[in-house]
What we know:
This is Methionine ABC transporter ATP-binding protein. Residues 2-227 form the ABC transporter domain. Keywords: ATP-binding, Nucleotide-binding, Transport. Belongs to the ABC transporter superfamily. The chain is an alpha/beta fold. It has a single domain (2-226), classed as P-loop containing nucleotide triphosphate hydrolases (Rossmann fold). It is 35% helix and 21% strand. It contains eight helices and nine strands. Strand 4 (58-63) and strand 5 (66-67) form a beta hairpin. Helix 6 (151-163) runs parallel beside helix 7 (181-197). The radius of gyration is 17 Å and the shape is globular. The structure holds adenosine-5'-triphosphate. Residues 11, 19, 37, 39-45 line the site of adenosine-5'-triphosphate.
Amino acid sequence: xxxxxxxxxxxxxxxxxxxxxxxxxxxxxxxxxxxxxxxxxxxxxxxxxxxxxxxxxxxxxxxxxxxxxxxxxxxxxxxxxxxxxxxxxxxxxxxxxxxxxxxxxxxxxxxxxxxxxxxxxxxxxxxxxxxxxxxxxxxxxxxxxxxxxxxxxxxxxxxxxxxxxxxxxxxxxxxxxxxxxxxxxxxxxxxxxxxxxxxxxxxxxxxxxxxxxxxxxxxxxxxxxxxx
Length: 228
Ligand SMILES: Nc1ncnc2c1ncn2[C@@H]1O[C@H](COP(=O)(O)OP(=O)(O)OP(=O)(O)O)[C@@H](O)[C@H]1O
């Protein structure tokens, strides 16, 4: 569960107005949230706070009972490695590594996720292969350099890397923007199936409002900041 109270964030101390000012936001465990709003309204900034990359300037941000606003940078890094899978807009894959190696990297910084992954498969590479297949990337592509894969295939690798070790929260920042409409919807169906299998909470940012009905709840970041 995510719990935000009176949160504000500003990139620079001299800003006249904070980038984000959210009075209240609660997200329940297992919810699939569609987060939207105009360009520059602060969606990626909010994701960076949820992921513990940045810390709120003021206010409370608690994820699964842990108050991230009170943790040091290194403790937030450890929290992120243990509990959060992040699918970046540009995927951030290592191009000279195979899909299997990219996916297993998701466990390198977390003993907890490593152990959880081994409860599903006998080894990390086998668990990576299981997730890649579940997300629609066949075995024939598992050992190639990811640089040789299509954008849609790279996106499946990025999603499998986020899901390995069953993190409680999956954050996805416009992961479907390079795909056509049919591929977007089928990718989201696979994403939901994985999230449901381990009851992960999903926070998904997109400008494509046609995707909204697929989610449990839609949050307009501008309206959220105007609530009294
Ligand atoms: N690293 C940074 N340093 C300073 N300001 C930043 C930084 N990153 C973002 N900003 C500013 O914060 C504001 C919100 O940016 P953010 O990227 O969160 O918006 P967004 O809603 O995700 O936009 P988009 O939909 O275009 O991706 C913008 O005014 C942006 O210029």
